[in-house]
Design brief:
Layout: E1 2-3, E2 17-18, H1 27-36, H2 38-58, E3 63-71, H3 91-98, H4 101-110, H5 116-122, E4 123-126, E5 133-140, H6 143-194, H7 199-228, E6 234-238, H8 247-276, H9 283-287, E7 293-297, H10 308-311, H11 316-331, E8 337-343, H12 351-363, E9 368-372, H13 392-398, E10 407-410, E11 413-416, H14 422-425, H15 432-443, E12 447-451, H16 458-464, E13 469-475, H17 481-493, E14 498-504, H18 549-557, E15 562-564, E16 567-569, H19 578-582, H20 596-599
Parallel strand pairs: 7-14, 8-12, 8-13, 9-11, 9-12, 13-14
Antiparallel strand pairs: 1-2, 3-5, 3-6, 4-5, 10-11, 15-16
Amino acid sequence: MVKAATGAATGRTEGIHVPTDHPAPGEGQLIRTVRQHLLLLGIVTFITTALAVTVGFLQGTSYTATTSVLVTPLEGNPYSPEGRGDDLINLETEAQLVTTDTVAKLAAGQLPGSDPARLRAKVSVSVPPNTQVLNISYTDQSARGARDGAQAFANAYLQHREQRAKAVTDGQMAKLREQAQRVERALQQATRQLSGANATERAFLNQRITAYTNQLGVIDEQINTIASTPIDPGQIITPAGLPKSSGHMMLLIYGAAGLVAGLVLGTGLALVRTRLDKRLRDAESVEALGLRTLSTIPEAPSSGEELVLVTQPDGPQAEGYRRLRAAVVAGAPGKQYVILVASATPGGTVTLTAANLAVALAFAGSPTIMIDATASAADPLELFGLSPAKGLSDTLISGTDPATLLIHADSNLRLLPRGRDAAQATHRFSGPLMRSTIKAMRRRSDYVVINGPSLHDADAQALCTLADAVLLVVSRGVTTRQDLIQAHIEAQRAGATVIGAVLESSPLPIAKPGRKPDRRPGTTERRAGESSTDTAPIPAPVPDPEDEPVVWEELVTGRKPVKDGHDIRLPGDRDNGSAAEEYPTDRRVAPTRRSEQQEEFSMKPSGKTGSGDGDI
């Protein structure tokens, strides 16, 4: 691994790691990969198993019959019982003879209408060890055909072996008869010469006649011996019977083979897909890059966006946000902490994460302000059942005191909306009014949560310079490793500290201009100050008693303003109205306290008492 995060000031590489290659998958990684691709594994296994069973079914039902043949040595050849051990029957050679064309033709003669070549494809021979037995098996689509085929090949083999032995003996007898004829001719010639021979020649010819007569006797004896020798090629010791069908067994074998092949192929495809896939899918893959995962938010059972700490306080998603709150509080050096929540995915939004984090911090008893610094994402006010109102854009464009624009959503939670002209206001995130706004909000709360755009956006990079820490939101199955690395680099370039990442289990929505998020079922649209018969009224934006405009003037200008009648004048201002143009009069809202009816509006979940949810 090499480090690939660029330091903000020194240009060093630190923080997040970039893997240069893919290490060999270990046992834990293999199990995690299989778990992530269970659907792919199941589909591949199902397809291969179905194909294997289909192939087995198309082959049809098959029957196999077997005949056992005992092979005996033959007289008059090297395989005779009197031969040496090396001269006994070579059964492997005999097994090969069963499948020859000669034997197949003999078998075809017993099976009318059969093709010898097709018969050879259906026969197989096995040799039990340490025996002189051949097991001849024949496979056919009918039980009778399998039995007849096995029996025909056994008979054909024995017939062929008998023919071979008889050919050997016939050849021997032919040679002996030929030899006897030569000796007979020599004997006749010697007998004719004896009548005209003298005494000396007569004695020699008598000896020759005697020798020829003895040789003919020996030859006749050999011929009689060979002729009387029985030829026994062997015998069938187990005739073939009607076999039972092996179709069901073959289907099971094909199915098992397809199942194993599917598992192996599916696992291989999963490993290849994991190797090629750059998307982050779990906390381990995020932490492998060197970035701590503060919490993993499980996938919500419903597709709608909602404040789960309010609607489902006992659910796993609410528990995930409580863990995120605990990690943020543990990492905060003190109060007046500003956190930028930004997406690591290009074009991603984090409205839901930022809103739930702000609610979690408020439920813990910490005064919290949530600032919506997005322009095209879903409006967080929709989550609180509010309609769009003035907000941050009015401060950045018109200089309106942000304290007068805060909406009290809970006793410890206030909202600073994006305002009516959020897209134009994003160009002023690097300006002095934005810095003054953050300072003003920091003074009024323990935690300031900024709902920001994707860190791949220049506007979010400008917000990094105003925050104490950056929380990166990783969308499971959407954010890639390169996206996270680049987002971390952009945060460090701005000098921000990335405290960690939160892994959202469901894909983040992509910001689209003019998008109007769907309301939750049963929510009616209400503007600030309107009331309903079945819900508490939504308070209008009102400042706290201590939020005097004088405080905002001091933050913006750095000079102590003084009151002059109804106007606020700064020392050194001219009478040409320049001050009034820079700070419009609509920021001077008379401080009022929230009514008791407004105080009743709370997002505390029903059924919860006290500050139990606020415990970290």
